Amino acid sequence: MDKKSVNPWTWQDNFSFSQAVETTGSSQILYCAGQASISPEGKPLHANDMKAQLTLALNNLEAVLTKGGYHWTNVIRLVVYTTNFDLLFENYAQLEERLKQAKPKPIINLLGVNRLIFPELLVEIEATAVK
Asked: Out of 2.40.50.140, 3.40.367.20, 3.30.1330.40, 1.20.120.80, which CATH number does the structure's domain 30-101+109-130 have?
């Protein structure tokens, strides 16, 4: 499978994402539900701590990817839902660190929402991966 970034501009490079990603020759697609700061028992963790919530959401997403036989290098699209953009941007480096391995960088959509499934959650991340 081949992946190619489609970027008519360069400003997105400062935020570690692509405007579009074209895939050819892919035979499998994994659609991941939104992952948040949730324990293995389904309980929300780290109330009001964006850094800890973002870390656990990324860890949970990585666990789903791994269980499906995928890796960050396979991710072509992320959708990040947040109840607080300011806190998200203060901790955006957490996300960038995970995406260092992704070539090309995935598409990232950031969406502000009033609340998530549990009111103490600040962020949720869903992904699409191909191989």
From this structure: 3.30.1330.40
- List pLDDT tens digits, range 78-94: 999 999 999 999 999 99
Give ∠ CA 74-32-2 in degrees, rounded to 5. 20
Q: What is the dihedral of CA 1, 4, 96, 35, to 10 degrees?
A: -50
- Taking the whole predicted model, whether its pTM rises above 0.90 is answered as no
> What is the DSSP annotation of 7-68?
-S-SGGGGGT--SEEEEES---EEEEEEEESB-TTS-B-STT-HHHHHHHHHHHHHHHHHHT
> Mind listing the pLDDT tens digit for each residue in 62-78?
999 999 999 999 999 99
- Return the domain boundaries, the chain: 30-101+109-130
Nearest of 88, 81, 75 to residue 31 by alpha carbon:
75
Cis previous bond, 106, omega within 30: no
